[in-house]
Each structure stands twice: as structure tokens, then as C-alpha cells.
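Figure 2 data, in text form.
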Amino acid sequence: MDTKEYIASGILELYVAGTLSDIENLEVYLNAQKYPEIKKEIEAIEASVLSLSGTVSPGTKGFGDIRNRIAKEGASLTDEKKNKVSWTAYLGWAVSLIFMAGLIWLYEQNNQLISDIEVVSLENITLEQQIADSEISLAKTEELLTTIRDKNITVVPLGGQTVSPTSYAKAYWNKHEKKVFIDAQGLPNPPDGFVYQVWSLKLNPLTPTSMGLLEDFMEDDNKVFALANPNESEAFGITLEPAGGSAAPNLEQLYTLGVATS
């Protein structure tokens, strides 16, 4: 062992200061037992520290001399430890940043998954509604077909009148079931605040009886409406009335009219 280089490294000062690990302390102790010059240097350092402790405080020149000895050769063990600590700290920060980036990525992926689930759920709801609407429409179509194919059905064409000559409609009247289907495909959309109202008419004298309203006209795709008709009708008429309907028809707004044949 080069005892001069070992003494110059500053490890003996750390040994006296009590900052070495157990293994390092044991190593210095064994070297001191083996090499008298090392043991002598340790005793000198201890004596110097005891002498300085009585006259100076940490931070003064005397203590600084000890620190300068530790810093010989340009790199002490303390510096090496600091470097190790610095690299450990940098590595810790790097791991932390990677961990945070992973958490952020997982959070974004989770949000995207939730969003995708919501979109799929909305699409399923829309599809279910479309299926339900289709089933309702199909049921109405089947009911209409059953009605118009009934041998006892009476078909009453309703022609356009003065207020709207191009309008037309058709009534499918099942007297046995006391029901009328109104096919209103030939009527224009009613203006805001107005609704079509269907009337059962007795002609002599003219006696109108309301059969009901063609509600949600614009939303109904096939424009076929089922209405009850317990009346002994001689004709059917459709007028445009204020929203909610009227007690008596406004004949100036009579859009279609048709006489039922016996």
C-alpha cells in the first residue's frame, strides 16, 4: 500500500470525524494496526482536532484547514458521495417523471375509454329507439293493411277545397270496429300554432262532430292517423284549427271534404 497516498486521500480525517461506514472504519483501523505511519497520522489528526476545538468554532480557518486536507488531490471521498447522491437524485426524478407520464397516459386512456363507452351507449339507445319506432310504424302499417283489406271497409276520398285545392286525403272507415284511418299524406304541413281537425258530418241538416286531431303531423312520417268514429257518418271533412282544436269547424279553413257512399 502507498501509505502516503492513503494518508493524502483524506479518509483518515473522515475516520476521526466519525463519518465513515462500519466497513470503512474497520478498514482504516486494520490499516492503522498494520502501518505505524497511518496510526501516527490518525493520532496527529485527533490531537489537532482536540486542540482546535478549544479555540475555534466550525467555519473558522482552523477547521477549514482540515477541510482543505480532505480536498487534496482534487477529489475527496465526500465529493464522490455527493456525486453519487446527485446521480441518485437525478435518477429518482427521472423515474418520477416517467411514472407521472405513465399515470397521465393511463388517465387519458381511461377518459377516452369512458368517452367511447358513452358514445356506444348513446348509439345503442338511438338504435333501440329506431327499432322501437320501426316496430310502431310496422304495427301501424300492418293495422292499416288489415283495415283496408277488410271486406267491410268503406274508402272515402277527400278532395281539396277552396282554401287549398291541391290538398287531398283518404278515410278508411271500418263501421264494424267504429274506427277510421285518415291518410293525410296529401295535406301541407300546418303553420305554427295550428292543427288539423277531422270531422264526421251529417248532411241534412249539416251537423259536424269532431273525431279528433291529427297530432304531431310533421313528426309522423307516414301521415296515417287512427281515430275512433262511433258516428253514423255521411261525410268526412278536415279543417285547419287553432292548436288544441275547436268546438265547431271553421268552414273557411276546410281543406278536404268527402262524402261516404252507402
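Caption note: The CA atoms of residues 16 and 46 lie 6 Å apart.
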